[in-house]
Amino acid sequence: MPRLTFARLSAALLLGIFAVVLIGEGPAMAEERHRTLFDLLFGTRKAPEQAPPAAPVKRKAKPKPKPSSITNIDTSNPAQPVKKLDTAKHVLVIGDFMAGSVGDGLMDMFAGQPGVVIDEKTDGASGLVRNDHRDWLASLPGLLDETKAVAVVVALGSNDRQRMLIDGTREEFHTPKWTAEYERRVSELTSAATKRQVPVFWVGAPPFQSPSLTADIVTINLMLRRQVEAAGGTFIDIWEGFIDADGKFAATGSGVDGQQARLRGSDGVSLTKAGRAKAAFYVEKPLRRILGDTSVQAPLATANPPISDYGLPQLAMPSAPAPVAITRTDPISMTDPSLDGSNALAARIATSASAPLVAPSARDRLVLHGDTGTAPAGRVDDYKIRTK
């Protein structure tokens, strides 16, 4: 039997060790990763125990923002309604749905003023084309007698883009015959009030979302302006307040308080509360000229004045004094020779014997005579010290 060499003994020993390891571990070996020779000789290193997976952190859901309780910002800021005086002046508002919007805005505007009453007598589907639905030419005189109005606010034309029945024939919109009859009705309606010395404020229609409707409204507004002003009324153009920078229809814009607000409804025709306030804003200024002092907000006089927290009656504050005329004076320049009361040079000798002589200044002595004067003792230009 041949002698086993050391190399063969070593190989046999390694195979034995490998077999022992396989038998000892059994099927678990198949589940583990492939072992290296280093693992067989020095043993298998235990894998570090993995920490159990951390439980998922539940994040708190962010609270949803609460819906704002303010859905529509009231840009008009209407005053609280007060009881109207028996001597209050009445303003009559007639016309279509646009007149109803203007009337609502005026009612909010003058709600806190006891000397003004807004009488809104509008019909949303009315116009000047159809007399069978509402004849404003026939009903206006009776409304003036009923309300004793001192002014009339009219808004008609938004519904007049349709055929008109003239002498049994239906004329199409904007034909020569249609235009002549429409202008006659506008002039007659305006004259029904101006002949009674009642001012008429005719509010033009704003642009609409429909381009074709807007184009026709431009034509109607031109006819309204021409006939209303010819009959002695005042045409109020609100067009600029409801367009954007490009001159097109705008659903939102500046309100009466200068803040951005929605002015038109979703239909592109109606006015929102902010839009009604803005339309009434155009009418307010010329209307207050007619109303005068009665349109100024003032509290009603009460027999028993309210009691303050100290148990004393709250007396009305005295009225502000009348402004005092201030005499205007001419502005005075800092370089004005007359600022010190003299308009002559300091070195000028007075020609009058009674006028006091003015001693020349140090500047005049230096410029005119070259006299630098005597320096005070101890100053750097006191040359007497150096000569001593």
From TrEMBL:
Residues 68-79 have a biased composition (Polar residues). Residues 48-80, 369-388 are annotated as: Disordered. It comes from the Bacteria. InterPro entries: DUF459, SGNH_hydro_sf. Residues 379-388 have a biased composition (Basic and acidic residues). SUPFAM superfamilies: SGNH hydrolase. This is SGNH hydrolase-type esterase domain-containing protein. It comes from Rhizobium aquaticum.
